[in-house]
Please model this.
Amino acid sequence: MKKIDTTLYFITDSTGFSEEEFLYRVEEALKGGATLLQLREKEPDTRRYIHLAEKVHEITRKYNVPLIIDDRIDVAMAIDAEGVHLGQSDMPIKTARKILGENMIIGATTKTVPQALEAYSQGADYLGVGAIYPTTTKVKTVLTSTETLDAICKAVPIPVNAIGGLNKGNIDILRGISISGICVVSAIMKAESPRKEAEILLSLSKELIK
Model:
């Protein structure tokens, strides 16, 4: 099993930001202690996605943080990213694993115990489970109960992270569940100080998982 630190899993959203401001916020989040970073671009402009991924990868390498590309295996391969994250409607994990080999990190979004078990059996390295709360990102969300999250954590031996509308004011709902970390988007992307917010969230996440 790969050693992946998912304590504070930061997922980007470039909506409304200039490239300069977006990259600044990415770097500030890494300075604040984000342990894993996923580049998520929902617009299907491949050239822009690759351009942005290369820029972000320059930053993540500086902080020795793995870069995960959302959905797009082609983009991940093009820029030699450390991993990809696949949803339920994306390429099957077993197919992605055939293409990417054993060394690439593959994460999966799951919302039920059967989905989690299937993802694990097909070679997923970690799971993102949610949404715990409604989100403001442009992604379709189905809410997942903390009971289901807990059951998934107990069902698979790989890291499980909670995702969906999480911030410093509401993550206490996860206390007592054996997650490996939290995934956050807006809490950092929209923060007045992404660095300070990342520092706070990292500390709170460590408290939850200790």
Summary: The longest strand covers residues 105-110.
